Amino acid sequence: MSKLEGKKVLVVGGSSGIGEAAARALAELGAQVVIASRDPAKLQAAATRLGDGVRTAVLDTASDAGVEAFFAAQGEFDHVVVSAAQTSSGPVRQLPLVDAYAAMNSKFWGAYRVARSARIAEGGSLTLVSGFLSTRPGKTSVLQGAINAALESLARGLALELSPVRVNTVSPGMIATPLWSGVSDEARKARFDAVAARLPVQRMGQPEDVANAIVYLVTTPYASGSTVLVDGGAAIA
Fold first, then answer.
1. Which backbone phi and psi does 57 adopt, to 5 degrees?
2. Is the omega angle on the peptide bond into residue 172 within 30 degrees of 0, that is, cis?
3. Measured distance CA(86)–CA(131) in Å, rounded
4. Domain residue limits at 157
5. What 8-state DSSP symbol labels residue 108?
6. What is the pLDDT of residues 48-91, one digit of tens each?
7. CATH number of the domain within which 121 lies
């Protein structure tokens, strides 16, 4: 029997990309998965792709009251995964402060709100998704790197505060997700090919690659306070 058989798992940001891939992988292992995001239409489309057994819930992690009310109504989860975020990018001296504040509110404070309100079973887990820019910052993505580093530090501290609940982080590199859908097919292929050529693994990352790491952290009872890089070797290239 799978370690996740019958376990109640919440995937925040489960309506697309990494979150959807994680929801699929966890459901295939027998978990009772709830996917949450703020867009009901995207949730329904994802639920259709994921198939029977996956439930949906509307949740805006930018709302203090909304997050508190959500978890008060949902009860206890065995595992919670947070991959929801919207972050603007650009040089610090050019990125409008309102966009910088919104990025921090979405990715860092969104995860913080979930960690603060979620009821997680003893021996369960909370898994956050950061990004490799925390270890290899870029000159046009300074804020994103700082947010990712803050998330990883938050997870390490929470691993102590929330014990015996386990808290970990998965740090992906560049992943082929729907976030790239606004770019033309030609431009997207050129960018992906260029990224793959620079990486030791010689290929672009897929959401399923990150989902594998999430499943590992969720199902490994000796893993807590860890950050798992899934970046194709970008941090060392």
1. -150, 135
2. no
3. 13
4. 8-176+206-230
5. I
6. 999 988 999 999 999 999 999 999 999 999 999 999 777 888 89
7. 3.40.50.720
Written as one string, the DSSP assignment of 192-219 is HHHHHHHSTT-S-B-HHHHHHHHHHHHH
In a domain, 44, yes or no: yes
Buried b (16+ CB within 10 A) or exposed e, 56-82: bbebbbbeeebbeebbeebeebbbbbb
The answer to whether residue 200 sits within a structural domain is no
Give pTM, 2 decimals.
Answer: 0.95
Q: Give me the phi and psi of 18, to 5 degrees please.
A: -60, -45
**Token code pair at residue 120:** 């997680």
* Three-state DSSP state, 86: coil
Q: Is residue 103 part of a domain?
A: yes
pLDDT digits (tens, 9 = 90+) for 185-218: 888 889 999 999 999 999 999 999 999 999 999 9
